[in-house]
Amino acid sequence: LTRLTLCTDVNFFLATAALPVFLGKAALAAESNLVLDGDLNGGAPVSLSDDSLLSLPQTHIDTSTQWTKGFHRFSGPLLADLLSRYSAGPGDLRLAAINSYSVTVNRNLITQDAPIIANRMDGKPFSRRKKGPLWVIFPYDKSAKYQGELVFAASVWQLSQITVLGV
User: Fold this and answer.
1) How would you write 46-63 as a 3-class SS string?
2) Quick one: which of 11, 15, 95, 116 has the most CB atoms within 10 Å?
3) Cα(13)–Cα(9) distance, rounded to whole angstroms?
4) How many angstroms separate the CA atoms of 106 and 89, rounded?
5) Kind of pairing, strands 102-105 and 159-164?
6) pLDDT (tens digit, 0 to 9) for every residue of the chain, 167 residues total?
7) How far apart (Å, rounded) are the C-alpha atoms in residues 15 and 112?
8) Are 132 and 157 spatial neighbours (Cβ–Cβ below 8 Å)?
9) What is the end-to-end Cα distance of the chain in Å, rounded?
């Protein structure tokens, strides 16, 4: 009985582990829910799907990163646009990742040019294995101001939550 149970458990694991491969884009999009909470005008947390993020104006950044090989085109909404759309207060942000990494980001780092919440890399959704499905991306190659430790720390991959802190 133990051998049969182990075999069944292994088969179940293999089948469910392969599921995202078979579902492709739909599986990646389903993974990309982002929670926006904290100091919002409406008060209640907002859960943003991939479609919600795609409904915002899209921006692209062509850049290399210290975490990937070569240049890539990252695209998604500007973080500033997302905050504006949901009437976020002026406080700093706490960005949190799926793996429990979190960082508090000074609001001055968020501009009308950068960063974006990338949900596409080279035109396609990207998986957790490739630092997705959501990644805070700056134009690292554009200026030395995007090559410091504060920017690198704010470049949260596998982004899952943005909390707008009170002032």
Assistant:
1) EEECHHHHHHCCCEEEEE
2) 116
3) 6
4) 13
5) unpaired
6) 444 444 444 444 444 444 444 444 444 444 559 999 999 987 899 999 999 999 999 999 999 999 999 999 999 999 999 999 999 999 999 999 999 999 999 999 999 999 999 999 999 999 999 999 999 999 999 999 999 999 999 999 999 999 999 97
7) 44
8) yes
9) 60
* C-alpha dist (Å) from residue 26 to 4, 89, 94, 103, 149: 33, 33, 28, 29, 34
Task: For residues 140 and 66, give the distance between their C-alpha atoms in angstroms, rounded to a whole number.
Answer: 9
The backbone region for 164, taken as left when phi is positive above 0, alpha when psi lies in -120 to 50, beta otherwise, is beta
Residue 59 CA to residue 8 CA, distance in Å, equals: 46
User: What pLDDT was estimated at residue 32?
Assistant: 55
Q: What predicted TM-score, i.e. pTM, was given to this entire model?
A: 0.81
Say how many CA atoms lie within 13 Å of 24 toward its Cβ: 2
Which helix (H) or strand (E) segment is 76 a member of? strand 71-76
How would you class 12 by CB atoms within 10 Å of its CB: exposed for 0-12, middle for 13-18, buried for 19 or more?
exposed
